[in-house]
Amino acid sequence: MEFAEGVPCWVDVMLPDVEGGKRFYGELFGWTFDEGAGEGYGNYVQASLGGEPVAALAPKRDGRMPTAWTVYLAAPDAAALAGRIGRAGGQMIMDPMPVGPFGTMGLAADPEGAVFGLWQAGTHQGFGRQREPGSFCWTELYARDKDAVDPFYEGVFGYGGQDVGDLEEDFRIWSPAGATTGPESAIGGRALMGDDFPVEMPPHFLNYFVVTDCDAAVATARRLGGRVRDEPVDTPYGRISVLVDNQGAAFAVLQEPDQA
C-alpha cells in the first residue's frame, strides 16, 4: 500500500512486557509475531495477520515512557513536515531519524501535547492490511481546545474538515488533502474531552481495530487480563468499545454495521 501525506499508515504500542503483549493481542486479534528486529532496532516486534504487517510491539526502555499506542501519519518528506509542525505551534519530540532501510520516523506533539508519529516509508510501507477484522481502521484525537488543534492539523496536513456531531457531541472528521471531504474519505476524527474525562487525562489519540463481534472481543479482553473503559455501544458506524490491555494501553474495537 502507498499512503498519502497525513494518512495513518502504521501503529505500534510501547509495553513493559512484550511477551505478555504478544499473548494478549495474539489471542484477541489473531496476530502472529516475528522474532523481533534486534537490539539495534529497539527489539521491535512486528505483528502480522495473514502474513501481512498490521502493527508492532516495542519494549519500554524507560519506565517513565507511557504504555500507549501510537499512530504514525505518512510523511513523504519527514524533515519538511517536521518543519511545518514547528511553525504551526507543535513540537518534535524526536526529530526524523532513519531506521535502517525500513524508513524514517519521528515523533511529534500538537499544540495541546497529543503525540503522534511520522513515517517516511523505505522498504516498510506501513499496513499490509487494514479495515478488516484484526487490523487498524480509524484514529481519533481527543482534544480539549478545538480552536487550537483543528487549525493545526488542517494547516499542517491540509486535511479537509467536516463537523458531524450534534449539540451534545462536538465531533469533526478529517479527509486527506485533495480528497472530497466527507465520511467516505475520512481517515480520522477529532472529539472533545468533556466532563466525563478525568481532568488529569492529557489529550491523546485513540486507535480503533476491526472485530467481527464487539461483545465477544470485550469478553476475550477481560479474560486475558484487560479491562473495559467504555462498554459496548451502538453507533451509526458500528458497535464500539474502548478497552485497556493487560498492561495499561488503551485502544478501541469496532464491529462494523454489516457484521452486526
Describe this structure in words.
The chain is of the alpha+beta class and 260 residues long. It has two domains: 8-121, 2,3-Dihydroxybiphenyl 1,2-Dioxygenase, domain 1 (Roll), CATH 3.10.180; 136-259, 2,3-Dihydroxybiphenyl 1,2-Dioxygenase, domain 1. It is built from four helices and 16 strands. It has an eight-stranded mixed β-sheet, covered by helices on one side. Strand 10 and strand 11 form a beta hairpin. The radius of gyration is 17 Å and the shape is globular. 40% of the residues are buried.
Report the span from N to C terminus: 28 Å
Question: What class would the helix/strand composition place it in?
Answer: alpha+beta
**CATH-defined fold name of the largest domain:** 2,3-Dihydroxybiphenyl 1,2-Dioxygenase, domain 1
Overall, the morphology is globular
Layout: helices, strands, pairs:
Blueprint: E1 8-15, H1 18-29, E2 32-33, E3 45-49, E4 52-59, E5 69-74, H2 78-87, E6 91-99, E7 103-109, E8 115-121, E9 136-143, H3 146-156, E10 160-163, E11 171-175, E12 188-192, E13 204-210, H4 214-223, E14 227-235, E15 238-244, E16 250-255
